[in-house]
Write a structure and sequence with these properties.
The structure is a single chain. The chain is of the alpha/beta class. It folds into two domains: 182 residues, Glycogen Phosphorylase B (Rossmann fold, 3-Layer(aba) Sandwich); 183 residues, Rossmann fold. The chain is 47% helix and 16% strand. Strand 7, helix 8 and strand 8 form a beta-alpha-beta unit. Helix 4 packs across helix 5. The radius of gyration is 21 Å and the shape is globular.
Length: 378
């Protein structure tokens, strides 16, 4: 029996990994798995050696404050991988954690094939990292075709598989009246997948909803949480005494709600692709502590935070970053779109054009699983 160890560093990577491994299980049932994963991998029966929350840190200062904990987790993970002795080590996203583990594992056992899924964003910052990856990575699975040139230049084997969040999935009908008790227009809110992000953005978003409620009475605000963050969101909303809000963590229900949404306010990240794929207009928000912001601003090469805007080199989706990420600015941006529905239509058209450029011809998860299976049996 072949063995695969999956290592993720945060919920979004856990979600991507689960999609691919689900497909791999369909084409090859003779594989044993172990992971550093979360609720998504757990839902398909893959155990994790520890709770993903223990390594999900955000920002440079948080990493620095937890550096010894992180080093300890890296060493423990390496030890467990060597003990498990997999044929493939599949690392997913979160390169500052996952690739440090892969590098150490390769030094201990060169026979373990190291595959990384979701290429580090060397086109945004630290392009020189590619030379280092060449020493310990056997293959990289790319989400975007334009990334290929960076890894071809160093002769690192790679395959463009596309983004799994852009896949067209079977539309499972769920009676939302059992979940949502309102017939108001839905504004979906994505405050992040990490508790640190949620804690930072939630007070701003609650103030934004309060401002909306002073002018409008026909909107329901639905927070898209995770199993790890839903209780944090619920507790803070209860304290705010807002009545026109819901918190949903179930993936199938969240997808249905997004498809029915009138608008979305989203933290910058991969979820923005899901929103665009659902043809829902949106704005992007993000905030971090000032020191983290200064460090990142000095390192990044791109003008925008959102991938749609980066690809177009134009602000297709409004970005409210740092000091602009406040209740008043979010309110003003959302109201602008409400009053100008033609701008919502224009954004949807522009986003669809961009998605057609990066959407894989077949299923991304299928493509990635086929590469993994080929490397397993090859």
């Amino acid at each position: 029996m072949k063995r695969v160890f999956i290592i993720t560093g945060e919920p979004s990577g856990d979600k991507l990994a689960a999609k691919v491994i689900s497909k791999l299980k369909e084409i090859n049932s003779d594989i044993e798995y172990l992971s550093v994963g979360g609720s998504y991998l757990n839902s398909i029966g893959i155990k994790s050696i520890f709770n993903l929350k223990e390594i999900t840190y955000i920002g440079f200062t948080s990493v620095l404050l937890n550096i010894f904990k992180i080093k300890n987790k890296i060493n423990k993970t390496v030890k467990e991988i060597i003990k498990f002795n997999p044929d493939i080590l599949l690392s997913v996203d979160s390169p500052d954690f996952t690739l440090r583990v892969s590098e150490k594992v390769k030094k201990f056992n060169n026979k373990i094939k190291t595959i990384h899924y979701v290429a580090p964003q060397v086109w945004v910052w630290r392009e020189g990292r590619v030379k280092k990856y060449k020493k310990f990575l056997d293959h990289i699975l790319l989400l975007f075709h334009f990334e290929k040139k960076y890894f071809d230049k160093e002769n690192i084997p790679n395959t463009f598989v596309g983004h799994p969040l852009l896949e067209k999935e079977a539309n499972i009908k769920i009676n939302l009246t059992e979940v949502l008790s309102s017939d108001k227009k839905i504004i979906s809110i994505f405050a992040g997948s990490r508790s640190s992000e949620v804690n930072l953005l939630l007070p701003i978003l609650i103030d934004f909803i309060s401002l909306m409620n002073k002018k409008f009475n026909n909107y329901l605000f639905v927070f898209h949480g995770t199993e790890d963050t839903k209780n944090i969101i619920k507790k803070k909303i209860e304290k705010s005494e807002l009545k026109n809000t819901e918190v949903i963590a179930d993936e199938k229900i969240k997808k249905q709600i997004l498809n029915k949404s009138f608008f979305a306010v989203s933290k910058s990240g991969t979820v923005s692709l899901e929103i665009c794929n659902a043809n829902v207009p949106s704005i992007i928000i993000y905030r971090m502590n000032f020191l983290n912001y200064l460090i990142i601003k000095s390192l990044v090469k791109t003008k925008y935070a959102n991938i749609i805007n980066i690809i177009n080199n134009n602000e297709i989706i409004p970005e409210l970053i740092q000091k602009e990420c406040n209740a008043n600015e979010i309110y003003n941006s959302v109201v602008y779109f409400i009053k100008n529905p033609e701008m919502m239509k224009k954004q949807i058209v522009e986003c669809e054009k961009t998605l057609n450029q990066i959407r894989p011809k077949t299923s991304s998860s299928d493509e990635a699983s086929l590469v993994l299976n080929k490397l397993l049996i090859g």
